[in-house]
Here is the input.
Amino acid sequence: MQNTPASTTPKVKLNKAPGKNPNKKSRKWKSLKYSYPLLLMFFPVFVYYLVFRYIPLIGAFIISIKKYQPALGLIGSKWVGFEYFQQFLNSVFFWRLIRNTLAINFFQLLLGFTAPIILALLLNELGSSKFKRLVQSVTYLPNFISSVVVVGIVVVFLSPTTGLVNSVISRLGMEKVNFLTEPSYFWLIYTFMVIWQTTGYNAIIYLASLTGISPELYEASNIDGAGRWKQLWHITLPGISPTIVILLLIRLGNLLEVGYESIILLYNPSVYSTADVISTYVYRRGILNGDYSFASAVGFFQSVIALILIIAANKLAKKYTDTSLW
Here is the structure.
């Protein structure tokens, strides 16, 4: 009996039309199905940002290109285009506001951003857990104190007559200084006030990141003869570097934003030359003088610059490190 020879006809591979892969669609639906609890948790956050962030931003842009009058409403107000943007850019206060805002943010970035990292590293090195919890609680509590109270404490401490700082200065034989009316001191006063209030709270993120470093790495380094300093540089800091990069990117996106509440409570006309920032200027023009369109234009300008800064910082982080926001 002869065997039938196998067909030598070559098999033709049919190429599927691009973009019509059913397996890809099914995988997407499966991933959405499994991610349903996470998406459900994210939904309130999405609604919050949509209602309280993005929709007001659109409204602010419309107000900024109109001469908004509450009596006429948003639709009835007159269109003026980019007139208020030009007013702000050509204002005599523009460069002063930019300089003060960037200077305060520079000091907060240099001192305020590094202070929580240093505090977290020092707490991580403490052997006594009780003392560690005590220090953490003491440094954490100022975050819950109202800004009004914090500014009041600063004013009392720096009082030219009864303040503790000036009392020490006079005991040392030097002349008392009215710090709150001297423009040259304002940037540092505000920076150290914010550091005292927020360092303990911000250190929690780094402490949580430190707990994620494997203890086996420290044990192996001990066997190799590495001391605390080498462990800090080669294990601890690289271990929390992704957290540092992410928080730094967020901080860089807010370079043109300064908390105006504390500054308004702390400053006075004699220190406007160094204390007046974009947010306080907007408060005076928009809220006190009722110039809503101008204030909206400046606020929208800040948002656009912040977006550009955070995109640029994220690209640099992605290029030079393995961590980025997206």
In short: Residues 36-64 form the longest helix (29 residues). The chain has 16 helices and two strands. The radius of gyration is 29 Å.
